[in-house]
Write a structure and sequence with these properties.
Length: 170
């Protein structure tokens, strides 16, 4: 064994006998002990714009130590398929997808499962009526893309994760 080894372990626990949630533990191996550095929080980014997804990914990876495993999807249907395979800790959802509005996506997701992760909705244009409907449908935050900054996105993600009792992973 070398003096220091970086290892990536995957821990899976059964969740409601249907889905599995994976937490990735990153450990540094020392000759006498292992130190747990952090757990990765799984985020699903649902946005048809590759450019916007890239911006969110860059913003969320600005931390000195990466703490997010990011899964991307460019349509509502693709997002629903991915949600059958993985259970993210948070969804970043564009309001206008090619096949669904964000509100339609949420309704479809709720029809398919009782385990709906927290959702932050992003939109190209702020609209108070849509924002109210989004919040009524369970969206935890509503962000306008034109006003989005690194600080706004990371603060919103951290806040929503803390509200959902995931502050240890944020």
């Amino acid at each position: 064994m070398t003096k220091y080894n970086n290892l990536l372990f995957s821990y899976q626990e059964q969740e409601n006998d249907i889905k599995r949630r994976s937490f990735y533990l990153i450990l540094i191996g020392c000759p006498h002990k292992f130190l747990i550095l952090f757990l990765l929080t799984r985020l699903l980014i649902l946005d048809d714009s590759a450019e916007d997804r890239g911006v969110y990914r860059r913003y969320l990876s600005k931390k000195a130590v990466p703490t997010y495993q990011i899964i991307e999807s460019e349509s509502g249907e693709e997002g629903l398929e991915k949600l059958e395979l993985v259970q993210p800790d948070l969804i970043l959802l564009d309001y206008l997808l090619p096949d669904f509005t964000g509100l339609e996506f949420i309704a479809e997701l709720r029809a398919q499962t009782n385990q709906v992760p927290p959702i932050i909705m992003l939109t190209g244009q702020g609209n108070e009526v849509i924002a109210v409907e989004a919040m009524k449908s369970g969206v935890k935050d509503y962000l306008v893309k034109e006003k989005l900054t690194l600080e706004i996105l990371t603060t919103s993600v951290k806040s929503v994760l803390q509200q959902e009792h995931w502050q240890f992973f944020a």
